[in-house]
Amino acid sequence: MSAIYKHPKLTDYFRKSGVTAAMPRAEIGSIIRPYEGGQVLQFPHLDFGIDHEFWAGLKTDDIARLKKLSSSPSPDDPSHDPVLDRRLAEANVPGGLKRKLRREITRLYERALPVYEALFSGYRFTRRQVVWRLNTIHNENMHVDTYVEPFEDHFARLFINLDDQPRIWMTSWTLDQMYAQFGSHLSRELVYASQPNDLHTAINATTFGGRSTVWWDKQPRHVAYFDPGAVWAVDSRQVSHQIFYGRRAVSIDFFVDRDSMWKPKRHYLHTAVRFRSRTLKGPKTVPVAG
Fold first, then answer.
1. How many helices (H) and strands (E) in the chain?
2. Is pTM beyond 0.70 here?
3. Is residue 108 part of a domain?
4. Total domain count for the chain?
5. Which of 60, 96, 120, 203 is least enclosed, having the fewest CB within 10 Å?
6. What pLDDT score does 286 carry?
7. Mean pLDDT, residues 216-229 taken together
């Protein structure tokens, strides 16, 4: 059973769901409302029959490009995945290991993707992306996800711990709370000149320090121990987080047409748009992008 240690100064945004892998798809309720609302959804009864010994035993230090694999399974046949085939070829994975990897990946897709698509029913997927995170991470910095270029699409993110050890996460303020509590530290000139994507980068740095070496910032944290096989969903562009320790995991990250969101204004860029509009009210207001 995964364990969550909650900080009293932070919002308790953790919620549990009783969904199981054996449930008929029609009985699995959509989670898009709480997901867009910034909740971290846990599924303690979901068991995808993962071979934890196999995943934990992968010696990815010997094959550098195996540490992070992109994948895009076909909606009709999850074993058909040219993106994954190309990544495995680029990594020079030996034939026997490559065949075993493909079997384990396809087996998980067959079990997990029907549940994933039911959990996020209501969304129109524009791109099927999965990332196999097979590297060891220690003391990542606290952050909300930001990018060099903005994403117009929303995304639906589900994590699964593949390893035989817990994946230790810490979480802190939501993006809305970061702007509410620390937005006043951003200069009006910066807010005026920045686009929403750049404002997210700035509020990250203002709140948490902005560098991976500054993981010891003084912001409060919830601590989550996600056990082997644990499954959870969170919009990591809306809830600040850090991987304190983790080895083998997969994130299913299908891109979503923002018009199919329950509330399109919950798209991650709109938080910065709203903040920018409030900050620039008055005679110096400029048109808001996004």
1. 8, 13
2. yes
3. yes
4. 1
5. 96
6. 40
7. 94
